């Protein structure tokens, strides 16, 4: 099977699993790149668990880089390096749509998630958000929630609000109800970068 045919089949199979997403695939010598775009941004864990059996069925010993972003956004929300394990004990006539392939367990995903709250989404808060999201790596996903009294009038980066993992919480970050809404009980860190020192 030619590389072009393989990529066309992969595109078709991914479009069946993710019918509402825009999918781009690029091939290099030893790497495969897949970009998934949807609104909202595709969920990283669900996406990788869905895509794993298809990539394993390709039976190609190459790393695959999977990216997700919100449709129309210039930033990716997440990216993961994925090295599929070959599937074993499949019938010789198995295809990508065979029940054995679809039911095959996805490779266990060892992804650490760090949850961070930013209090204040002015210029400094936006730069912190941008830096934190760029810190995500193959095995670390950084999820950021923000609290501010107002929606920022000036955005330092185009589409920066879409980098938040939840909608901006409008309120006073000193109040328990807004901290609870932002997920304070599950977060690893809080950045207080408001313009008000109180």
What does this structure look like?
Strand 2 (31-38), helix 2 and strand 3 form a beta-alpha-beta unit. The longest helix has 15 residues, at 3-17. Strands 1-2-3-4 form a four-stranded mixed sheet, with helices on one face. Strands 7-6-5-8 form a four-stranded parallel sheet, sandwiched between helices. It has two domains: 3-102, no CATH class; 112-192, NAD(P)-binding Rossmann-like Domain (Rossmann fold). By secondary structure, the protein is α/β, with parallel strands linked by helices. It contains five helices and eight strands; from the N terminus they run αββαββαβαββαβ. It has helices at 3-17, 44-57, 99-102, 123-134, 176-182, and strands at residues 22-27, 31-38, 63-70, 78-82, 112-119, 140-148, 169-170, 189-192. The termini are far apart. 27% of the residues are buried.
Q: Characteristics of this structure?
A:
elongated; 198 residues; alpha/beta
Question: What is this structure, in a nutshell?
Answer:
This protein is of the alpha/beta class and 198 residues long.
Question: What topology emerges from the helices and strands here?
Answer:
Elements: H1 3-17, E1 22-27, E2 31-38, H2 44-57, E3 63-70, E4 78-82, H3 99-102, E5 112-119, H4 123-134, E6 140-148, E7 169-170, H5 176-182, E8 189-192
Parallel strand pairs: 2-3, 5-6, 5-8, 6-7
Antiparallel strand pairs: 1-2, 3-4
Helix pairs in contact: 1-2
Low-confidence regions = 86-109
Please tell me the overall pLDDT: 78
| Residue share in helix | 25-40%
- What is the total tally of β strands? 8
The strand order across the widest sheet is 1-2-3-4
Largest sheet: 4 strands, mixed
Shape: elongated
- Structural class computed from helices and strand pairing: alpha/beta
Percent of sequence in beta strands: 25-35%
CA radius of gyration: 20 Å
Q: What is the distance, rounded to the nearest whole angstrom, between the alpha carbons of the first and last residues?
A: 65 Å
In terms of quaternary structure, the protein is: single chain
Number of helices: 5
Overall structural domain count: 2
Order of helices and strands: HEEHEEHEHEEHE
């Amino acid at each position: 099977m030619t590389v072009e045919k393989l990529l066309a089949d992969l595109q078709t199979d991914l479009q069946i699993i993710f019918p509402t997403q825009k999918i781009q695939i690029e091939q290099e010598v030893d790497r495969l790149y897949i970009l998934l775009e949807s609104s909202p941004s595709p969920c990283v864990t669900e996406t990788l668990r869905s895509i794993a059996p298809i990539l394993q069925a390709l039976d190609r010993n190459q790393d695959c880089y999977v990216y997700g972003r919100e449709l129309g956004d210039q930033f990716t929300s997440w990216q993961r390096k994925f090295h599929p394990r070959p599937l074993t004990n499949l019938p010789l006539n198995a295809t990508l749509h065979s029940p054995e392939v679809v039911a095959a367990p996805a490779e266990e995903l060892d992804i650490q998630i760090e949850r961070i709250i930013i209090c204040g989404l002015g210029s400094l808060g936006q730069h912190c958000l941008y830096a934190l999201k760029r810190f995500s790596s193959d095995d670390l996903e950084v999820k950021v929630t923000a609290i501010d009294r107002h929606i920022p009038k000036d955005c330092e980066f185009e589409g920066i609000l879409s980098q938040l993992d939840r909608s901006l919480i409008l309120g006073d970050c000193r109040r328990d109800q807004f901290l609870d809404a932002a997920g304070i009980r599950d977060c690893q860190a809080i950045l207080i970068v408001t313009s008000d020192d109180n």
